[in-house]
Amino acid sequence: MPAIRSTLLRRGTAALAALPLLALAACGYGSESQDDNSAKIAAGAEKTDGLDTVKIGYFGNLTHGTALVGVQKGFFQKELGATEVKPAVFNAGPSEIEALNSGSIDIGWIGPSPAINGYTKSNGKSLKIIGGSASGGVKLVVNPDKIKSLKDVEGKKIATPQLGNTQDVAFLNWAAEQGWKVDAQSGKGDVTVVRTDNKITPDAYRSGSVDGAWVPEPTASKLVAEGGKVLLDESALWPDKKFVITNIIVRQGFLKEHPKAVEAVLKAAVETNKWINAHPDEAKAAANKQLATDSGKALSANVLDPAWKSIRFTDDPLAATLDTEARHAVKAGLLEKPDLKGIYDLTILNKVLKAEGESPVDDAGLGSS
């Protein structure tokens, strides 16, 4: 079965080992959200599938807004009844996949590249993608004094969040399409790729150690607040300006043993996305409030407002674009050709959508047989 190249795996393991102690606390891999969901359990509510808790993982990124808003507004807790939601916040995809594999979380919001990596590393046994969450929200932001056009990116230092992550793959693919050669592992070439944690990318930009960054929101808007200029919105590179940035994944054992709990979470996700799209300003405020709860600091309006506008929240996993992103990773030399057949199981999601009077979503031929 195809696997991730060993160098990438070693670096992913090293990234996990380098996470701060806080990120390894509570649930085992991610920092536990401080939100007290037990206070939101309705009187007389019953447990779902007999479970005491359902452990949900996500990143402190606005592209994980479905999870942020769903936790903050109590959508997940409402659907799970007396089964308590236990949120855990992660900084990187490899650590969330490890948490899923170990049982430290049951369901997670995650980008396409970590989902692909987790699936292929386990020979298709660890996870399933069970729903979509968000599209867009990724931009190339540059120092306008150094880079005035797309061709000026050549020879410059551009940050991406992590070797082999979704934005890293996207930037390497875009650079190759410009005719530039870059060694994917070292990041050296006609453009220098500097793998930098999103939390410190604004500092790196401010100090001049990078000339720009291909990053998700809210990091992109943080760079704009530092004087950066949006040179390219990644959505412009995709048909209909849609591409998957966040999916919902589940541990296969949990899916098999607790389908009612999975259905409750997916129903809550659909309801959350519907509420987000109907109440964008309230949803934006709720996401920011949850970010403050999780990190201790809310986003300023000049960062939050443009970041939120660039993200589309959707139940559709946009499966065809995940397949394309996998091919981009293969082309960059970060992934051996994967067999993604079976990575999706959209059965429960389509059941929920039908009950809501919505159209079913497609797995692009990559569903369970």
TrEMBL record:
<dbReference type="InterPro" id="IPR010067">
    <property type="entry name" value="ABC_SsuA_sub-bd"/>
</dbReference>
<keyword id="KW-1003">Cell membrane</keyword>
<keyword id="KW-0732">Signal</keyword>
<feature type="signal peptide">
    <location>
        <begin position="1"/>
        <end position="25"/>
    </location>
</feature>
<keyword id="KW-0997">Cell inner membrane</keyword>
<keyword id="KW-0813">Transport</keyword>
<dbReference type="Pfam" id="PF13379">
    <property type="entry name" value="NMT1_2"/>
</dbReference>
<protein>
    <submittedName>
        <fullName>Aliphatic sulfonate ABC transporter substrate-binding protein</fullName>
    </submittedName>
</protein>
<comment type="similarity">
    <text>Belongs to the bacterial solute-binding protein SsuA/TauA family.</text>
</comment>
<keyword id="KW-0472">Membrane</keyword>
<dbReference type="InterPro" id="IPR044527">
    <property type="entry name" value="NrtA/CpmA_ABC-bd_dom"/>
</dbReference>
